[in-house]
Design brief:
The complex is a heterodimer. Chain A is built from 14 helices and two strands, in the order αααββααααααααααα. By secondary structure, chain A is mostly helical. Chain A has one domain (66-368). Chain A has a two-stranded antiparallel ribbon with strand order 1-2. In chain A, helix 1 packs parallel to helix 12, helix 4 runs antiparallel to helix 5 and helix 5 (146-177) packs antiparallel against helix 8. The longest helix of chain A has 35 residues, at 6-40. Chain B has helices at residues 17-21, 23-37, 78-82, 124-128, 155-158; strands at residues 61-63, 88-94, 107-115, 134-136, 152-153. Chain B is of the alpha+beta class. Chain B starts with 16 loop residues before the first helix and ends in a 14-residue tail after the last helix. Helix content of chain B is 20%, strand content 14%. In chain B, 15% of the residues are buried. Chain B has a three-stranded antiparallel beta sheet with strand order 2-3-5. Chain B has a two-stranded antiparallel sheet with strand order 1-4. Chain B has a domain at 61-158: Alpha-Beta Plaits (2-Layer Sandwich), CATH 3.30.70.3270. The chains are: A mainly alpha, B alpha+beta. At the A-B interface, helix 1 and helix 14 of A face helix 2 of B.
Chain lengths: 374, 172
């Protein structure tokens, strides 16, 4: 039983903690979503359950569990149940490869603050994110409802379209680091050399694609209330619906963590070396874990901020943006990154690329655009 | 022919680059929502906090007493006639000897009932009353009722209590 050594136990505990943190943050995201929505609309928001309403997620959970668990008569029963399960499963699986911190030594056991460091880390994230749409697709199809089916189809085509641009923007990162391992990507960004400096365009593309992948406003067409009632979860009720909504919030948090890992230095924070020197590497690594979670929460806030600002895209606009906007843009980004590596100035190339792009577009605009006739 | 110079002919050309990219507009919109995020909410925590609704708000009915504590209502029935919802009913009674401290006029309302399910809080009873007896309070609303026997308010609920006199803003 060589497998069941101390590292194994430590990792098991760590994974349990990550699960608990993820679920806790997802639960409280629902509360903060409502609070942020309220503040942005000059309201107060939920304030009845506990002080400032902080027990609202508990009340919501009780409500979800108590409601009637309805399965439509003409639905495919097993797939109907499998849909939300799959959504939840894939949402939780992504966090396995996110490096939450550097190596720590607790009670004589040395291990990484990461579920598992595989050398195909980014591909793992992509594989799981692609699987994530299956939960929606299966749920929407099994409902035997045309609205659900339309929502599911929209989710599938939207995810496929935006995964391309997302993959292209990550290729630029891979060109810089030369590794698919998330751990290596973070380690190359230590001491403030964050990828955002070299990849401003890549980050923008990734951020927009992350919105689409999480089915968040302005790309929440799969659950578009005005057109599709509830979209893929029209027929769902009780905790099955809760799982779908919960999975969305987990996805938000995890995509925030992935964005922080790829573009914002992961667990790096200003003064990392100082903390490591003063209190030891273990403390520094745990503070780094807090830093990563803080960055992810910042992204969650941005997700919510955008949701309560922007209206929903029309479906053809969504597809147009994905295929004719973001994919060419990400290809341009790959070329610029390659040029930057060639001349050995990736930061200059990254910023120069944006400037050249904007200048070119403005030039094109000035020559070919029909002027307003006033 | 132009009547004024206010007419503005708008002819839209193609969108500019900034408009087509959405991003400047998105940043502007997000700045607006962030401004509201930090601004004071316009709503209040209602049952705990209440807004002042003005001195002429029409809330729960009250049958006023005069300065000596005698009921002002003389059961003339003008309020019941004025009431468009027919919510008011009353039974008149002659004042007996020795009841002068209780009732101001020779005739008084033995029964005075307002059906709160019918009442539309228009305030016409208040307008009609020649004795300044019935008012709609500006500071109290009719509470929510759950059973039908709570709906009809009799004199026990309507007549002003001497220890908590109703004073509208603007009265001396």
């Amino acid at each position: 039983m060589e497998l069941l050594n101390d590292v194994f136990t430590a990792k098991a505990i760590f994974i349990g903690i990550v699960f608990a943190i993820t679920l806790g943050i997802a639960a409280y995201s629902t509360y903060f979503e409502r609070k942020i929505a309220a503040f942005m609309q000059d309201r107060i928001g939920p304030d009845r359950a506990g002080p400032f309403g902080i027990l609202q997620p508990l009340a919501d959970a009780v409500k979800m569990f108590m409601k009637e668990d309805f399965i439509p008569a003409n639905s495919n029963k097993w797939l109907f149940i499998a849909g939300p399960c799959l959504s939840m499963l894939t949402a939780l699986m992504t966090s396995a490869v996110v490096p939450f911190g550097d190596t720590v030594t607790v009670a004589g056991v040395t291990f990484d603050l990461q579920g598992i460091d595989v050398n195909i880390g980014i591909l793992w994230v992509f594989g799981i994110v692609s699987l994530g749409v299956y939960g929606i697709l299966i749920g929407g199809w099994a409902s035997n409802n045309k609205y659900s089916l339309l929502g599911a189809i929209r989710a599938a085509s939207q995810n496929i379209s935006y995964e391309l641009a997302m993959g292209m923007s990550i290729i630029a990162i891979l060109m810089l680091t030369g590794s698919l391992s998330t751990k290596t990507i973070v380690e190359t960004q230590q001491a403030g050399h964050w990828n955002i400096l070299q990849q401003p365009l890549g980050f923008l593309i990734f951020l927009i694609c992350a919105f689409a992948e999480c089915n968040r406003t302005p790309f929440d067409l799969p659950e578009c209330e005005t057109e599709l009632i509830g979209g893929y979860h029209t027929e769902y009720s009780s905790m099955k619906l809760g799982f779908y909504l919960f999975a969305e919030y987990i996805n938000m948090f995890i995509s925030g963590a992935v964005m922080a890992t790829l573009f914002f230095g992961g667990y790096d924070y200003p003064g990392y070396a100082f903390v490591a020197g003063q209190f030891g590497t273990t403390v520094a690594a745990f503070v780094g874990m807090g830093a990563l979670i803080g960055k992810s929460l910042l992204f969650v806030f941005v997700f919510m901020w955008v949701r309560w600002t922007l209206p929903r895209f029309r479906y053809d606009q969504l597809m147009g943006l994905g295929w004719t906007g973001l994919i060419p843009l990400s290809m341009f980004n790959v070329v610029v990154t390659g040029f930057g590596i060639l001349i050995g100035q990736p930061i200059l190339a990254g910023i120069g690329g944006v400037v050249i792009l904007l200048a070119g577009l403005f030039l094109n605009d000035a020559i070919f655009r029909k002027k307003k006739i006033a | 022919m132009k009547l004024s110079n206010k007419t503005k002919v708008i002819e839209q050309g193609e969108m500019t680059l900034a408009e087509r990219m959405y991003l400047p507009a998105i940043v502007g919109g997000m700045a607006t929502t962030l401004k509201h995020f930090f601004s004071k909410p316009v709503t209040i925590r209602y049952p705990e906090q209440k807004r002042y609704l003005g001195p002429i708000y029409r809330g729960q009915h009250i049958l006023k007493r005069d300065e000596q504590g005698a009921e002002r209502c003389t059961a003339c029935g003008l309020c019941a006639v004025a009431c468009p919802a027919e919510a008011i009913s009353m039974v008149a009674e002659e004042r007996k000897k020795g009841e002068e401290a209780l009732y101001r006029e020779e005739k008084y309302a033995k029964v005075y009932e307002v059906n709160m399910l019918r009442c539309i809080f228009c305030g016409l009873c208040e307008e009609a009353c020649p004795k300044e007896a019935i008012f709609l309070r500006h500071d109290t609303m009719v509470p929510v009722f759950s059973t039908r026997d709570e709906v009809i308010y009799g004199k026990d609920k309507l007549v002003e209590k001497m220890d908590q006199r109703y004073l509208r803003d603007g009265w001396k």
